[in-house]
UniProtKB/TrEMBL annotation:
This is cysteine desulfurase. InterPro entries: Aminotrans_V_dom, Aminotrans_V_PyrdxlP_BS, Cysteine_dSase, PyrdxlP-dep_Trfase, PyrdxlP-dep_Trfase_major, PyrdxlP-dep_Trfase_small. It comes from Bifidobacterium tissieri. Pfam families: Aminotran_5. Its EC number is 2.8.1.7. Belongs to the class-V pyridoxal-phosphate-dependent aminotransferase family. NifS/IscS subfamily. One of its GO terms (molecular function) is iron-sulfur cluster binding. It catalyses: (sulfur carrier)-H + L-cysteine = (sulfur carrier)-SH + L-alanine.
Amino acid sequence: MSEPESERNDDGRTDGELYLDAASTEPVSRDVIDAMLPFMTDAYANPASVHRAGKTAAQALDAARRSFAANLGARPDDVIFTSGGTESDNLAVKGIALARMERMRRDGVVSDLLLGTSHAESAASGRRPRIVISAVEHPAVAESAAWLERFFGFDVVRVPVDDAARIDLDALKRAMDVASERTALVSVMLANNEVGTIQPVEDVVRIAHAAGVPAHVDAVQAAGQVPIRMREWGVDALSVSGHKFGTPKGLGALLVRGSTPIEPLLSGGGQERGLRSGTQNVAGAVGLAIALDESIAFMREHAAELVASRDRLIQAVLDAVPQARLTGDPRNRLPGHASFIFPGVTGEALLVDLDTRGIECSSGSACAVGRHEIPPTLLAMGLEPSIAKSALRLTFRRPLSDDDIDRTVSAIRRSCTALGLR
Ligand code: PLP
């Protein structure tokens, strides 16, 4: 293993460490902390309380809801504050699928045998409700669909992607199974966490709606980085997570159009339109609104610079390591996302070695806590497991300087050499 290239501080970091793992999480800005603080100290009341202090908190919650919705092209009433992307995805996928299943059963479209009988029996009846997702969804969506399959006998269709992780729209159309009217939901992410590919969600929504099916979009990686117009695109439900754009972790929202059938997953006091019971996190909602606003304002000014620095980094890596290959869509990708494979080394060894050289990055699937699994998106893109294992992801929200790029590329070259890549 190589020597650290700079001295370590007491906290274990070096002065020159470069954080290139923004897709995992982002720091919280001082402005966001300052905006949140009063709602934990002075204006701490429960927004449901009728006294004046409660009203002050309720007004702050309303203002946050309005600003947050406007920045995502939604209406204030669409916003359901949650504890983050995972909860939002679970609520959307399970909540909409179960509400639609109930209606289909009432209308006799799907089998009445679903509950209390074996799934084999309902499968044999050919009338299982269906859920359609892409083959590259985050586990918060993919595992929610698997849960519906396991406990309610849903038929889960995973629509394939091409070698750049772009969804196959013809396969999506076929998956809708229009004639049977049994498709409960389509769920496709806006931007992929592992390889940064942006999906054509407007086309996805058009296909879903033509079949009379609601569409959920996981916009966790995209929010604050690319423009989102939920209502204009016709999206029925959209998930976002605050810590990807600068709030503390554990904050997010599901935006749901009023007419979308959806069952709550939490029972309780009926907050958030009855869809997410529990006393609201007023400080958190304020933080979400400010952080999203800041991110969008930053991108308005710096998106072109960010994209240009991403492309310089990509080219420099490809020039420095002949074995390296870019993964994901070369053009239609997140502005601060560069992902590669380095056949001949493992991504895990590479990122551990890069860490010793002051470069903090990831192999791709950040949310697979403590497990170093083969990035599933790369497998769905058709890569052999031995190649997919060599994935490395460099993600950033601020444009990289030429010096940042030189340091990163030089560290990657040295790590590859140290790991025996010739
Ligand atoms: N969806 C996507 C695409 C993600 O990348 C992530 C996290 O990385 C999540 C959902 C889960 O979000 P959270 O960490 O807020 O639970």
